[in-house]
Design goal:
heterotetramer; A: mainly alpha; Protocatechuate 4,5-dioxygenase, Chain A; 10 helices; globular; B: alpha/beta; Protocatechuate 4,5-dioxygenase, Chain B; two-stranded antiparallel ribbon; 11 strands; about 35% helix; binds fe (iii) ion; LigA_sf (chains A, D); Extradiol ring-cleavage dioxygenase (chains A, D)
Chain lengths: ~120, ~290, ~290, ~120
């Protein structure tokens, strides 16, 4: 059983299929945990210890701790779960989008979303 | 017997709820979006539905990946807002149409659907935002709800045509329900958006506008599209738009469009709204 | 392609597991029951299946009434015994046939079934006891499993004919699975028993024996019975017998019965066992 | 919405339908709790307090505390849940059956289950 996400069926569009769901299980479970106030507190107090509780690999931990959204998704993180990180450590969803698109935030708003900025 | 008085469709973007909570309704970014819903709110005030059946997806809040139901139907007395990470939102809990929910579940099982049956469950922005968009922010909701959760996140997600079929069974359940209550069905989600991958930020206003036409005029075309086509056309998260087919499947072939609105972007999403009535029971002046 | 080598049916009464745990196998109460399974164990040893698809129901252990799936399919790496109140039983955890599970789930969704998808779940005596009856108590299970949970407790439970249909989809999944693995399917539950109400203690040996004949020779008749007929004939808990139809639906119309056993009462239950092979692929000497 | 179980569709055979599932929700949730060791301990230590935690009505509490199986089932208790009480406070399932059938245990074994006793 391959653990890592494979090719995208639609270009640049990661479908959350069995491989991603399996591969991202730890990251997503950790992030799901952030829907409880006491876990948000624990995450704030000692992020590394909180991540260890969910058995994240060093690679996964680094992606989370550096807020590397693209990498979290590549490792199987699903945005609906990992978005809860932004409830603890605020960041706009358009910034998360821009990061994944590999664009400056203003460019992203202008060129992807058609905003006048 | 109960009566289906309308089919509503709307996006359910979480930022919409956040914008309301933060009092941003009148800001330049949001005013044109919210203004578009005024006719929808007026329609609801005028037609006073008793029960709202709301089709939506959970976004990793009520369900985790350990156990993912394809379809889940609520039959609880009450549905409280779930904590999505920012604490539960300060909106009134939804009252359930418990007896109809069970009748619908019976009808589903008899028609070879395999729902998960939920007597106790919290609900996320997937239902909250649509209710706020059509009913505003009352002290108590003037309708009772039936939540239908559809898995559109973890593959395999259901076929669009299966969603459409479920709508037909919903209609059958409404028409065999021995009260004189007035039902609306809300299809929610979409329109185009993609939150992950290098194509993040993808919106497709042209496809969205075509969808708003076809959902009324050519739903069979939409029901026959593949899941991949939804993803390609509306983005990986925009594919949830197929949930509108449950609503559309509950309606007649011929409908009247009462209101329609499109705005892009709401947050990162093409945001659409529609209000439809069955042609056969629409008020004659408009149906003509 | 993978191959279906047999269909097994068996009761899954918890007292059977307790009898094994307490070393009661050779007592007068239990010996005739357990001796009946020796040919079944021999068949398994001889035919060495790689994967066992086991259809059973949870008994208020893995699921509570808050969220009851009609059908749930496991796709976990491992399934541990759940604590049913006496602590988890000391039996080895079951290894999952993960890749096939997902293939089966894909096939179900494509065929308009709506399963709940379980990546993390514990399992109760519903699967434990059948595995012990056919494979004994090895240090490690020599087969990997695919658990299929069916709601037969809270009404509405699925139609018997829906279970039968699911079996056909299971067969399709096995035959389209690109390995040379050997599959058995186990239908479990029943036979007649009733644990609640003034009719508690109801058993129906005559109906049970007829069922053991019909499951091989006339499954369509069993699939066309109503849920109420199952309850009447086999008792309120005996109605779970309809789960054998998933197994039977996976087989050909014509089967060979290799072994069959019936014993009453095991605890409060009519206990039955059957081993079948498809006629077309059974060894010629017996099929003739 | 009627809370209490209605007529049996099949004589003396309570089907666990919506009415029973609704009516018995508290009892069954309490009993489901007994699948955790710490709750079994709490039940043993102070049964009444344990039952109160799940909001049982006085009628429901009395049925549980007197081990009135017939009454528990009448109130919507489902045997698969309430059976967990017998893991804490041992009783044979045939005794539970006999109680519901309104028969002496030996009679029950003989006449219902066909045992030679
Ligand atoms: Fe959504
Ligand atoms: Fe069972």
């Amino acid at each position: 059983m391959e653990e890592k996400p494979g090719q995208d069926r639609i270009p640049d569009t990661p479908l959350f299929d069995r491989k991603r769901s399996l591969g991202g299980y730890r990251i997503n479970k950790m992030a799901m945990g952030l829907s409880r106030p006491e876990n948000r507190e624990a995450f704030k107090q000692d992020e590394s210890a909180y991540l260890d509780r969910f058995g994240l690999t060093p690679e996964e931990k680094e992606a989370v701790m550096t807020r590397n959204w693209r990498e979290m998704v590549r490792l199987g993180g699903n945005l609906f779960f990992i978005l809860k990180i932004s409830a603890v450590d605020p960041v706009r969803i358009t910034e998360i989008g821009a990061h994944q698109a590999g664009m400056e935030h203003d460019d992203f708003l202008r060129n992807r979303l058609g905003k006048k900025v | 017997m109960a009566k289906l008085i309308g089919g509503l469709g709307t996006s359910h973007v979480p930022s919409i709820g956040a914008a309301i909570d933060k009092g941003l309704r009148e800001t330049p970014d949001w005013k044109p979006f919210f203004d578009g819903y005024i006719p929808g709110q007026d329609w609801v005030k005028e037609h006073k539905p008793d029960v709202a059946v709301v089709i939506f997806n959970d976004h990793g809040n009520s369900f985790f990946l350990d156990k993912v139901p394809t379809f889940a139907v609520g039959c609880a007395e009450e549905y409280r807002p779930v904590d999505e990470g920012w604490g539960p939102r300060a909106i009134p809990p939804f009252k359930g149409a418990v007896d109809f929910s069970w009748h619908f579940i019976d009808t589903l099982i008899d028609n070879r659907f395999d729902p998960m049956i939920c007597q106790e469950i919290e609900v996320d922005h997937g239902i909250q935002v649509p209710m706020e968009l059509f009913w505003g922010r009352p002290a108590e909701w003037p309708v009772r709800v039936v939540p239908i959760f559809v898995n559109v996140i973890q593959y395999p997600i259901p076929l669009p045509s299966r969603c459409y079929e479920m709508g037909r069974v919903l209609r059958q359940a409404i028409e065999s329900y021995p009260t004189d209550e007035r039902f609306v069905v809300l299809g929610t989600g979409g329109l185009s958006h993609q939150l992950q991958g290098a194509r993040a930020g993808f919106v497709n206003p042209e496809a969205d506008r075509a969808f708003l036409n076809d959902i009324a005029g050519d739903p069979d075309k939409l029901a026959n599209m593949s899941r991949e086509q939804y993803v390609e056309m509306f983005g990986s998260e925009g594919a949830e738009l197929m949930m509108w087919l449950v609503m559309r499947g509950a309606m007649d072939r011929d409908v009247v469009v009462r209101h329609k609105h499109y705005f892009v972007p709401a947050s990162m999403t093409g945001a659409g709204m529609i209000v439809m009535e069955n042609m056969a029971t629409a008020s004659p002046a408009v149906a003509a």
